[in-house]
Design a protein that fits this description.
Elements lengths: L40 H9 L9 H8 L3 H13 L3 E7 L2 E6 L2 H7 L1
Antiparallel strand pairs: 1-2
Length: about 110
């Protein structure tokens, strides 16, 4: 029974140096929207010529395509609906969904 002790083992996990700290990303930068707060003549014409031809019309779609504020888009859509140029499909809470008024709709109404 020799008194030789087993050679001391290295502690596991101590090798490899200090771990690097995680570098956090700065996040994505969104472009600042610069949407109009009032209709100018050109945009107002677009509202009457182009928007009435869309199949799906929502304030967000109008806002994005015409570069106007959503509140202005909503006001424009209310005006178009009053004149019978677009038809409201869904009016749920804050989400309004319109579609173009077709000739078939006019026949049903009369």
């Amino acid at each position: 029974q020799g008194g030789k002790a087993a050679p001391a083992k290295k502690k596991e996990g101590s090798g490899g140096g200090k771990a690097k700290k995680k570098k956090w990303s700065k996040g994505k930068v969104r472009d600042k929207l610069n949407n109009a707060v009032l209709f100018d003549a050109a945009t107002y014409d677009k509202l009457y010529k182009e928007v009435v031809a869309y199949k799906l019309i929502t304030p967000s779609v109008v806002s994005e395509r015409l570069k106007v504020r959503a509140s202005l888009a909503k006001a424009g859509l209310r005006e178009l609906e009053a004149k019978g140029m677009v038809k409201c499909i869904v009016r749920h809470s804050g989400q309004l969904v319109y579609t173009r008024a077709t000739k078939a709709d006019d026949v049903i109404v009369e």
